[in-house]
Amino acid sequence: MGAVRRFMETHYRHFNARETVAAAQAWEEHLAAGGKMMVTLAGAMSTGELGIILARMIREGKVHAISCTGANLEEDVFNLVAHDEYEIIHDWRALSADDEQALYDRGMNRVTDTCIPEDVMRHLERRLIERWAAACESGERKMPYQFLFDLLQSGDLEPHYQIDPAHSWMLAAAEMGVPVWSPGWEDSTTGNMFAANVLMGNVPHHQCVMSGTEQFADLIEWYRANHGGGDVPSVGFFQIGGGIAGDFAICTVPSIIQDMQEEVPFWGYFAQITDAATSYGGYSGAPPNEKITWGKLEPGTPKFFINSDAMIVAPLIFGYLLGD
């Protein structure tokens, strides 16, 4: 038994701590029974370097699909090639508006305590423009992650790596053939760049990047091929944060059942880590049982709702599963 598992089972006996252990144990049971697992990433998990342990989860076959925001998609690659230029601001709560302006003037974009250098974004932009333009010319159409996978697998970035490539979850996903859907990709730096370069004529048109509904259709096909057909547990759903990354992906099941009139199993496991309070009309803090009414889960689905900081809890759960 690993030290992390032993510590958690010894001390995490009540409240959110108990639920954390229960979620990890149920994930392990789900995989042991032959089920697959989807992880959804909201917030800035990649800038928080969740990739250090998420990459191991992917490479060890404990994660089979990912839905994430466009920011998480690109920020893992930013960290891969510019980690040493990042700046940490320890007393970030004390920053004044003038301090923030000074960071902006130096080309440092802040995410809580971490500043990302804008140079890395421009470093990738040129390489992506080449790939977007080439796809437009050839009539090829891809999802956002596939362009980044192509770039990672080309070897062009290898001389620029500033972290151990074993710590990049995007590299791990590319190696393992794990699909990565990014709903609302236009709400990201690379999505903004893409639109701007179409307007400036550097990319001929928008059609080389598949739309959000096309990504959703692709996810539907993935779920149809991987839900197990009742022979094994259907796909599990581990949600980090809330928002579009989670809601986009979890809507797969009700769309198949209600819109396509096709019977498939509901999601076979559900856990969410969030610091959002349950509120009136909010999604990020909506308790799991609310999803029953939307045809996403059923009463017997193993369900876990952990109110905590995802960058504290997710590595603990992953470490538990990895035997650390």
Describe the structure.
It is a single chain. The protein is an alpha/beta fold and 324 residues long. It has one domain (3-91, 119-322): 3-Layer(aba) Sandwich (Deoxyhypusine Synthase). Helices cover 47% and strands 11% of the residues. The chain has a six-stranded parallel beta sheet, with helices on both faces. It has a three-stranded antiparallel beta sheet with strand order 3-5-4. The N and C termini lie close together (8 Å).
N-to-C span: 8 Å
Write the CATH architecture name: 3-Layer(aba) Sandwich
Q: Which range does the strand content fall in?
A: 5-15%
Structural class of the helix and strand makeup? alpha/beta
Mean pLDDT: 96
> Secondary-structure element order, as H and E?
HHEHEHEHEEHHHEHHEHHEEH
Count of DSSP-assigned helices: 13
CATH top level assignment: Alpha Beta
How can the largest sheet be summarized?
6 strands, parallel
Residue stretches low in confidence (pLDDT < 50, at least 5 long) are: none
- By CATH, the topology is Deoxyhypusine Synthase
Q: Which descriptor suits the 3D outline?
A: globular
Q: Roughly what percent helix?
A: 40-55%
**How many strand units?**
9
Order of strands side by side in the largest beta sheet?
6-2-1-7-8-9
Total count of domains: 1
Radius of gyration: 20 Å
List keywords for this structure.
single chain, about 325 residues, alpha/beta, Deoxyhypusine Synthase, six-stranded parallel beta sheet, three-stranded antiparallel beta sheet, 9 strands, about 10% strand
